[in-house]
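Troubleshooting: if your tokenizer reports a length mismatch, compare your output against this known-good record of 173 residues.
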Amino acid sequence: MSRPTICLIPASPAEYDDFVTDQIREFAEQKVRAGHWRIEEARELSRHAVESFLPDGGPSEGHRVYRAVDTSNRGVGWIWVGPPPVRLLNLPTRWWLYQITVDAPLRGKGYGRAMLAATEELVSREGGQELYLNVFRWNSVARALYDSAGYAVVHDSETETGMRKTLSKEVAR
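Known-good structure output:
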């Protein structure tokens, strides 16, 4: 199966607001599942964490939210990239993939791979040389995607795996 063609379009203000709301909910659910947070505190902790990078009115400096669209301009998913959350990694050549989400009805059709490739091209065009991410251990579909795309494990914990990919100059073609 050939990879679908997609384009990354900056999220509109309304799309951005919806994305932030969804991220707060999803991040809280994942952190509770991981055992990092108690359910009673998860929503507030998640809101604080997400809004520290994605406040009202638009993303913090360097952070970007994109809607992935196919050739008929149909939305197929979301990407959030920006500077790494860890100061030690915070160099202009290092970027962080905070979120990649394929809309549920379109999963398993190659959109995730297309979105990841488009993100790598975007980062490389803007001078990024490395792309980092974390994936929860139970997300085997995402982990398989990152493994097959050449991401290497840089740390492992009981609940999460940190990964990194060095982007080649050819990615920016």
